[in-house]
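Record type: ASSEMBLY
Status: queued
Input:
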Amino acid sequence: MFVSLDGFAAGTYVTLEEPFGEAMALTRGHDGRAIHGIGNIEDITFDGAMASMFDQGIGVEIMGRRKFGPQSGPWTEDGWRGWWGEEPPFRTPVIVLTHHEREPIAFDNGTVFHFLDASPQEALRRARELAPGADVRIGGGPTTVREFLAADLVDTMHLVIVPVTIGVGTRLLEDGIPSAEDFDIRSVTLPSGRTHQLWNRRRGD
Amino acid sequence: MFVSLDGFAAGTYVTLEEPFGEAMALTRGHDGRAIHGIGNIEDITFDGAMASMFDQGIGVEIMGRRKFGPQSGPWTEDGWRGWWGEEPPFRTPVIVLTHHEREPIAFDNGTVFHFLDASPQEALRRARELAPGADVRIGGGPTTVREFLAADLVDTMHLVIVPVTIGVGTRLLEDGIPSAEDFDIRSVTLPSGRTHQLWNRRRGD
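Status: finished
Output:
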């Protein structure tokens, strides 16, 4: 998750041109090889290297509806198949949390969007059925990640603190959720100016 | 490539128990998720994240014979199939440079070792035939990497400077090869004490 210096991980609106609303600055300049098999071959950067964890060992993603598209309310026959064209970067099953369930949408590269009206616990159980033995990525947006954090369902979190301010939007860390004491937190600041943090949940003694 | 503070990337000998000889300390404690689908699920570390670049976009590896096994001279019928058991971490074709060519060895997970007596340029041409459009990883050992560096065939190099001294062995960087002026070099020191460097070849102005 990308977070601004003032704590925002998403803006207040989502449009086709600005999927992150006011928070577009969070991913600007996020270059280098990021996702297996997708993207140009450019200089390899530390930020790109960190992002190359994206699909390592992951068998399924859970995302909020806003990450899938800008619509709200009941689905219409608008032909929307997600932000990513015919090559979504997931290549695995993806659970889209929504109050409006619908039939799955499948792509040739292995990506299959399943639409589920479920609690975080139920969604996680369903994710593990879809990809036994693999890890589950909670892909965002921040509201969805916060729900899983509040339910103590996150073992590892990768934050990228981006040296910009946004001013408005949705915060990832708020109301004491999660408690930093529950995690071993390591930080490193890269030449790009971004600070990457790895949060690993502390295990029992 | 892992390099000690005194510049060594391999020891003077290779045995079944110590594939890096005196340089075993270079990879000690190299934990965290490193290679897609292989290894235990542990805490995710920055070093592990950097290592997760290992297979991103790579379609073939070129390695020296010593990386494949401890033998020298003509091959014997000893049943050796590499250091890695039946799950070699490559999952792609691999070219093993040797003066003693032999039939390929294939594994169920996609790894196929091809044995080739060739110059760096010829090996690279053959690698590109084996994996059109993908990147080629020069996997080591240091002598092999130095040959490709000397021939100006390396676009990107990922070095891990490990805070140990080895005292003897094979150096990676020697005799002014490669010239650091030919590369844009970025460094970051991680909480583990290791310094990772990304060398990207400078392009023409």
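Annotation: Residues 120 and 151 of chain A are 8 Å apart (CA to CA).
Annotation: Chain A has one domain: 2-75+87-201.
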